[in-house]
Amino acid sequence: MTGSSKPWSLIDLLKGWPNPFLLPAVQIKIASSIALSNADISTPGLLYGPDDGYGPLRAHIADWLTQFYQPLSRISAERICITGGASQNLACILQVFSDPLFTRNVWMVSPTYFHACRIFEDSGFHGRLRSVPEDEEGVDVEYLRKALHQSEMKAQAEGNTQPTLKPTRPWSKIYRHLIYAVPTFSNPSSRIMSLQRREELVQVAREYDACIITDDVYDMLQWPTDKTAVQPSREHAYLPRLVDIDRTLEGGAEREGSDGFGNAVSNGSFSKIAGPGCRTGWLEGTQKFAWGTSQVGSSKSGGAPSQLTSTFVSNLIESGELQRHIFKTLQPTYARRYQSMITAIEEHLLPLGVKLPQTTRDVVGGYFIWLSLPAPMQAEEVAVRAQQEENLIIAPGPIFAVYGDEKAVDLERKVRVCFSWEEEAMLAEGIQRLAQVIGRMQRNQRQQEEATPSPREGSSFLVERHR
Ligand SMILES: Cc1ncc(COP(=O)(O)O)c(C=O)c1O
């Protein structure tokens, strides 16, 4: 439906939630019933627990991640700390490992998951968040290196050489810099950071005493790009995480002479693979880092968060139900949803000049597709018109700008669309409605240009205006 009268049904391509149909309620019901019917599980589950979380869950996560990521050596339970999900744990990491006076800046790959900005600001970093641009391979490491150097020079000139706000504690350290990224199937840019960039990023972090915090929450939601692939799922990770690279690169995170905390830490979450309402996740880092995180005041007071839910999720992994849900339900369903949306994009948006990132990769995943609009279109105007004229909600690029450093990366012509939430049958129609809006705006633009006297031949409009 087009024109001024709104189509009847709202299509929401902004919301980054799983469709309710994909929640494993039955499996969680069985797992919770097993946990609550056995006093050996329900008693520790209903009491305060250990600081680093429910032991059996830590062990199951360690084995399961070993199978999925296939690192050079197995992941031990000591590297895992149970959390209240990726967002909650980002706040905990900051409480233990940063000092808003000594820690110079937070370097965020831009566009960024904007809720992380609020968490950094809550921890005292208002005004010190910095954008680091992405290109087709992921984070621009050379840009980051130069910016880190300048930031370090400034801190040295100001005599900022010692943490002053936080006490010295044997289980923690205060990093000079923080780097935040979503390296695989990024929210919002849907990109995958290349292996080479991952290695370079770890090297830069080591040079500048930075802690790279990655939200690896979409890694397991992946499928082949090829629409005709017989197997619409993949059981092993596409690339090692930054934490895997830090563990092994050039002597690893615990190499001789290092402090043993490492320079990369992974935030995992059950939000995208079980249900966000679980609010349970895990951190993986060096043994020292994982233990340090568990010593955050709020976990010292009664143990890690999500203790009861941990007993349910532990059973889900032990029984293999979670893995089956991911590989047999989520991956094929999201693959189908993605294909439906991308086919509509190819048919209706690419002919209008809209572009996609990383078009040659053989694996895609996550929840989102990132679109570049043709000039001179502005994403915010497109989003407003989509809502007014087509009853369609999309996410305009500027909302993913790093707070306080919005101008460093141009997101004016970017749009994020999500294929996880809206009803599957509506995804293609959502894209068609977006195409209607863009097509109309382009026609209006052409009409305006025809009505305005054209600039002198051979010179651009801007040059003409400045003569
Ligand atoms: C990159 C990223 N990190 C973290 C989260 C939230 O994770 P959790 O529910 O575990 O806090 C999301 C959810 O949208 C996300 O996209």
From TrEMBL:
Record-linked InterPro entries: Aminotransferase_I/II_large, PyrdxlP-dep_Trfase, PyrdxlP-dep_Trfase_major, PyrdxlP-dep_Trfase_small
PANTHER family according to UniProt: AMINOTRANSFERASE, LD15494P
Protein name in UniProt: Aminotransferase class I/classII large domain-containing protein
Range of residues in the leader sequence: none
Domain of life: Eukaryota
Annotated stretches, region: Disordered: 444-467
Any GO molecular function: pyridoxal phosphate binding
Domain Aminotransferase class I/classII large: 42-434
